[in-house]
Structure formats: C-alpha cells, structure tokens
Amino acid sequence: MAQSETDPKLYRAKSTSVHVTALDGLVNVNSLFTVAVFMGLSLTTPGQHSLENNGVCDAGLNVAKRLFSNEVVSFSFFLFSSLVAQGLKLAINLLNSKEVDEAFKAHIHLNFLRLGMMASAVGSVMGCIFLVLSMVNAIQIRLGVLSCSKYAVGAVAGMVTLVSSGLLVYISTVLYMLSNGKRI
User: Which sequence ranges are marked TM in the entry (predicted)?
Assistant: First the structure.
C-alpha cells in the first residue's frame, strides 16, 4: 500500500529534508567566509605602507591588532555556527534513517530544532559582522586610514551598505522561517 501525502512520517521526511538542505547551505557559506578570514590574515601585515604613499595615512599597529582580533572572533562564530548546523543535520538524518535501530534514532523536538537553527544563524550573522569589521581594518592598512583616504571611505561605505543589506534579507528570512515555517 502506497503512503499518502498526508501520512505524518512522509510529511516529516519531506519537511526535514528542507531543513537539512538549509543547514547544508549554511555550512557551505560559513566555509567560504572562513576562507575569507584566512585570506584577510595572510594578505595584511603590520607595518605595511598604504597605497596613499603618505606616511600620515598609514595605519598603526593598533589597526593590525584589531584586524587580527576581529578575524579570530569571526572565525570562532563561523565555526560555532557550522558545528551547531552539523549537529542538527546529524540528528535529523538519524531521525529519518530507516537503517538505524529504534533505540539509536534521534528524537528531535521542534523547539530544539528551531533553537539550534536560530543559534546557527546568529553565529553566522555575528561572524559576518566581525568579518566586516576586520575588512575595515584591512582596507585601512592597504588604502590608508579612513580620515586620510577617500578610496578607503568609498570601499568601506560600499561594503557596509551591501553586507548590511544582505544581512537584513537573511535575518528577515530566518525570523520568518522560524516563526511561521511549516511544522515537522
């Protein structure tokens, strides 16, 4: 006898596959951002002269220290977000697996799933914020401090505008999904 579309087990498997896909996407994006973190660390060195060719416009050691600190915090948030997402994926996959004995199946509560997805999303958003802060410092090291270089100001303004717009869309989508999304 074929399962109908209204069968709760079939519905649960379909809806949780959407969650797994969303968590996969989150982990993939976090991985790309983590690469950006390490590129920022490798391309910027303290004591480097800016492209402004004016010693007054060169960023000081404190800017390089903030860059490094923000990169480490950003990496930590991305790693946190990815680990939470991977844990949720594991639980969902165990829940839906037909090959696992009933004793080893994960029983994930909807509120726990939502809390985990929210924690993962918050980790990604915070990682993005600290990545942007570190990029502001990298821009100041390469193009000159903001008070000296119109190119640095333009780069920072463009980056902050685009990233904050993207984060606004992402946060709105996550909040909508968690508050009004379909039930498992």
Answer: 21-43, 72-92, 112-139, 151-178
Tell me the C-alpha to C-alpha distance, in Å, between residue 84 and each of 33, 43, 105, 108. 16, 30, 19, 14
Amino acid at 161: T
| Residues 6 or more apart whose Cβ sits within 8 Å of residue 46 | 61, 64, 65, 141
Q: How far is CA 106 from CA 24, 86, 116, in A?
A: 19, 14, 15
**Two tokens at 130?**
């600290």
User: CA–CA separation, 129 vs 122, rounded Å?
Assistant: 11
Q: Which amino acid is at 43?
A: L
pLDDT in tens, 43-95: 666 667 766 677 777 888 888 889 889 988 998 998 899 899 888 888 777 77
Other residues' Cβ atoms within 10 Å of the Cβ of residue 120: 25
Under 8 Å CB-to-CB from 150, ≥6 apart: which residues? none
Other CB atoms within 10 A of residue 81 CB: 24
What confidence tens digit (pLDDT) does each residue in 128-164 have? Answer: 999 999 989 888 888 888 888 899 899 999 999 999 9
For 36, list phi and psi in degrees, rounded to 5: -60, -35
